[in-house]
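User:
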Amino acid sequence: MPQSEYDNAADLHIYAAHAHTAAAAAHHRGDHDAAEELSSKAQDFSIAASEKTFEIAKRLRAPLRA
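Assistant: Predicted structure:
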């Protein structure tokens, strides 16, 4: 079943959150190389999620915020 664009955007936000959490854990245990790599992945997912969400929001007629 194809994924909706809303599901895709939500998944990207979730991936970013998980990558941020994994980066923090790696940093906490002293693995700074892994933390840097995971932080970079988290940033990539965050940017993709933001772009996808903005793309969806531009097509909506109603404002997203009250």
